[in-house]
Amino acid sequence: MTHAPTDAPSPLRHAVFALIAFCMALAAAEAFVWAIWAWRGGPARLRAYKEDLASARSYRFFDPPGVALPVPGSMIVQHKRDFTDRLLAKDALGLGVGLFDDGAAPRPVKAWALGDSFTRGVGSEDPLANGWVELVEKRLPWLDLVNLGLSGTGTLQQAFFYERLAPLSQHDWVVLCFYTGNDFVDNAEPFDWNRALKSLPPGEDPSAVFTGIQEALAYERGPDFLLRSPVKSRMVWAGMGLAQALWGEQALPRRVREGLAKYAGMKAEARNPQVPEEVRSVGAANMVGARMVPRGGSRRADVWLYPYMSDDSQARTLSRHSALLIHDLNAAVRRRGARLAVVVFPTMWEVCLSNEEWASLKADPHAARAMLEKELDRDLPLLDLTEGLRADSDSCARPFYWASDDHPNPAGYAAAADRIAAFLEARIPRPASRAVPPARGH
Rounded to whole angstroms, how far apart are CA atoms 327 and 329? Predict the structure, then answer.
């Protein structure tokens, strides 16, 4: 009995089977990597990155007055581990520029609040509801306090910003919020976005330069790839992460490398006669030498230790320089027929740590602040919030700060607003024609 010979598998059939097996393996690997991406919070991070880019693209360089600010009506979103701030920019001064303020109110006393992110209200989740500037306004119905807070700046940059806007809108008072956490060091840095953009050579668009740098600083390889590439593969996303780990900056997109290089060049070229070389070198040494001590034992807060906290000579250099900048700002404010008041806003670790804990760290954060206050003009209204917030924090059941961020939470801003409102009510003359209820205080 004979059997008919079976057909041998053709090379084409082998190739088809191999292709099918490869595709199935690829699909399984893609599904596996997608599951890891989703488990690690990929969808939420992608949404957040979209908002980060939209925020970066919402800024323009307005000239005049020569400042980089959001377009009115834009929503600026800042994502942190513990909170998300949503800041709606409004044309509060009627100048066509976006500020994080609810707008000028028809009140008899006009004031501006200058400062950094603590004035802007970072950590309040909604500065128009929970930031100290708006809360002070609610407590003092005769005072219109406009929020001019600029994140990441010191008194040097804030004074330049003030001088750009001061001729364009009437005001009676300026409230400067000096944050002891980094203003001493920030004031030793001559770089200023507004100065740098104003001095760009002809042919360079300041708005485009600023937006390009902000996008480069916000760049995240995974979310950026998934947003821009028509191929939405999570396998490629993982491969890009490996490439950047192996090749570092060379694996970054060209636009990101150019943006970072432009930013580095602008900072390196920054010079300001108000920042002597000695001060700049001390500030640079503190930036390099700063270290973070995590909370532990009885310490309720992470602590950033700067070299000047254990070196009286450095503390004196930085405090005198900051006092001189405040003196110059005071002169500029008086030239406008207005008055300046200063609020010293302490750090989380100054509020939460005891003197014994500071001694164990061999650091004294209070020395530079005391030197600063001693150097300021005696007739300058001054409020130091340190001891008040320490007392309020000890007696309050709710914490004043976020777990992983040194900005106050809404409860912390409310406590600061109570004390600032009482301070301003006592210092700023109220209109005699209106009966005004007393500010709440402690």
Answer: 5
